[in-house]
Design goal:
Elements (H helix, E strand, L loop, with lengths): L2 H13 L2 H8 L3 H15 L4 E3 L3 E3 L1 H28 L4 E7 L1 H6 L1 H11 L3 E7 L2 H9 L5 E5 L8 E15 L20 E4 L5 H7 L5 E5 L3 H9 L5 E4 L8 E17 L6 H21 L12
Parallel strand pairs: 3-4, 3-5, 7-8
Antiparallel strand pairs: 1-2, 5-10, 6-9, 6-10
InterPro entries: LysR_HTH_N (IPR000847), LysR_subst-bd (IPR005119), WH-like_DNA-bd_sf (IPR036388), WH_DNA-bd_sf (IPR036390)
Organism: Amycolatopsis plumensis
Protein name: LysR family transcriptional regulator
Length: 300
């Protein structure tokens, strides 16, 4: 039973889509199909029902847990060898929210690749829930989000700093001329919001007064809709405003959080990324005067 077949099986089992699994693994779709067929032939059982929608068979569902255990054990063995050698190399997958991918991660990405060229880095974008799930399932090494990480004893996290929140409003809106807003200024004001489960939706829901009139799937799309006069929005100050007017919301900030699997802290590639992120965070703090956590301040 080849490890690459198990990795491919796990990707297909998670996405239930050969095309998506192929894109994630950087394989041709035909290669994914061939690997699954080879695994099925070796096991003598069908792992997927191929109808209008792909689904796992009973045998496939049982194999998922074993595939996870085998691949996690392989990663632990590789980490042990890497720790002895000390030089970061191999693959590292980083994930981040759309806004952080555009604004914060490029500096980290560039610095890390310059210092550790033997590590092949993959950067993936996703929603907060998708990113945490990918880290929990060992499909991603480290992710960067806003807000608190989930309470999971298998995970570690660190706050790398904070970002002020602003209310973006259409040009000419009654709030556009204010220097700063307080929650009371938002009573009855129509807002666009990201879907439930998003950190910014949770922040908006905690403010009494705003009226949520519509939902928009991403912060970038939300900003464009606000600029077009469709309502107001609550976003981090670093989001491109797309022509909307940004007005600070008094005392409102959100943390930038880095999350990884606790057992991976000894892997040289992961340890090097954590150290690089801490170093850049400290540099940002000293140059901007904003509040940052000290290196090593870790929340479980």
């Amino acid at each position: 039973m080849e490890l690459r077949h198990l990795r491919t099986f796990r990707a297909v089992a998670r996405t239930l889509n050969f095309t998506h699994a192929a894109a994630e693994l950087h394989y041709a779709q035909s290669s994914v199909t061939e690997q699954i067929q080879a695994l099925e032939a070796e096991l003598g059982s069908k792992l997927f029902e191929r109808g209008r929608r792909l689904r796992l068979t009973g045998a496939g569902e049982r194999l998922v847990g074993y595939a996870d255990q085998v691949l996690e054990l392989v990663e632990e063995a590789r980490a042990a060898v890497d720790e002895e050698r000390g030089e970061p190399e191999g693959d590292l997958t980083i994930g981040a929210l759309e806004t952080l991918c555009a604004q914060r991660i490029p500096a980290l990405f560039g610095e890390y690749r310059t210092r550790w060229p033997r590590v092949r880095v993959t950067l993936r974008e996703g929603s907060r829930g998708e990113l945490y799930q990918a880290v929990q399932q060992s499909e991603m090494d480290v992710c960067f989000t806003f807000g608190d990480a989930p309470a999971d004893p298998a995970l570690s996290s660190a706050k790398l700093g904070s970002e002020p929140l602003v209310v973006i409003v259409p040009p000419g809106h009654p709030l556009s001329g204010k220097e700063e807003l307080r929650p009371g200024d938002l009573d009855g004001v129509g807002f666009l919001a990201t879907p439930p489960g998003c950190g910014f939706r949770e922040m908006l829901d905690r403010i009494d007064g705003p009226v949520i009139e519509a939902e928009v799937g991403s912060l970038a799309a939300l900003a464009r809709c606000v600029a077009a006069g469709q309502g107001c929005g609550l976003v981090p100050a670093l989001v491109e405003h797309a022509g909307a007017v940004a007005v600070p919301l008094a005392g409102a900030t959100t943390d930038v959080t880095m999350t990884w699997r606790r057992r991976d802290e000894r892997k040289p590639s992961v340890a090097a990324l954590l150290a690089t992120a801490y170093a850049l965070s400290s540099t940002d703090s000293s140059s901007s005067g904003s509040s940052k956590v000290k290196a090593g301040a870790i929340d479980s």
